[in-house]
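FAQ

Q: What does a record look like?
A: Structure on top, sequence underneath. For example:
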């Protein structure tokens, strides 16, 4: 449900900061990325209006210039925002601009949030905590603090206020687990779950084989796209009944 709302709000939200936060969360979800991956990342030369292709500057295993791609489609259909976002990101030379949180009736960074208003039970819309607003600083590349702000804002927009985020560990790392966990629910073989998650597990993990270099190989890129298409097809089929 959160992913569905992020995809919707990436287009429908009136606030540019909110739209960017939801774009960031959507990219992280469908590319199985942690927030830190988006720092210093850029649009890859392979990217097209129908293909999200990113160049990740670094990974925690020390890998550099890692290809990361998926179809520019999600549960709700094509990412209508991607073609313009891709073009603008290429022009500025980096993926995300800086964003700064601004306080409303409570300071979102301190998690000082009152109980949010109830959502619309009939429509299924989540409650909006109203505890995080932000300003985009165009012309400045996102910082680590900015990435935390994107994450905090994205979860606030789908009804998870800062206090609950802290208590239940909703972070910029959380979207990374969406597709691998869904693949496990579908009883996929572990090697395919690992492939979706881009994790070096089992014997590879024991030998400390770096995960990043595996995805510089064209065959692995094709596998990544194929597996994500299969998962998206099931999610799209299930969506009407959710």
């Amino acid at each position: 449900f959160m992913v569905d709302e992020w995809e919707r709000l990436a287009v429908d939200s009136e606030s540019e900061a909110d739209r960017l936060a939801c774009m960031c969360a959507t990219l992280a979800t469908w590319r199985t990325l942690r927030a830190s991956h988006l720092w210093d990342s850029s649009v890859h030369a392979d990217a097209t209006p129908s293909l999200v292709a990113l160049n990740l500057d670094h990974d925690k295993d020390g890998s550099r210039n890692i290809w990361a791609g998926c179809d520019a489609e999600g549960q709700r259909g094509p990412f209508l925002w991607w073609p313009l976002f891709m073009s603008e990101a290429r022009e500025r030379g980096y993926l995300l601009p800086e964003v700064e949180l601004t306080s409303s009736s409570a300071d979102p960074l301190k998690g000082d949030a009152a109980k949010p208003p109830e959502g619309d039970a009939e429509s299924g819309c989540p409650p909006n905590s109203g505890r995080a607003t932000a300003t985009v600083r165009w012309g400045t590349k996102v910082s680590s603090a900015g990435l935390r702000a994107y994450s905090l804002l994205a979860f606030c927009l789908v009804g998870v206020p800062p206090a609950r985020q802290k208590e239940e560990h909703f972070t910029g790392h959380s979207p990374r687990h969406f597709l691998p966990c869904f693949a496990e629910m579908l009883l996929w073989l572990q090697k395919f779950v690992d492939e979706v998650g881009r994790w070096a597990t089992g014997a590879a993990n024991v030998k400390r084989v770096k995960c990043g270099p595996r995805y510089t190989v064209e065959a692995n890129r094709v596998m990544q796209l194929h597996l994500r298409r299969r998962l998206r097809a099931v999610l799209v089929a299930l969506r009407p009944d959710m």
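Q: Is there anything notable about this one?
A: The first strand starts at residue 42 and ends at 43.
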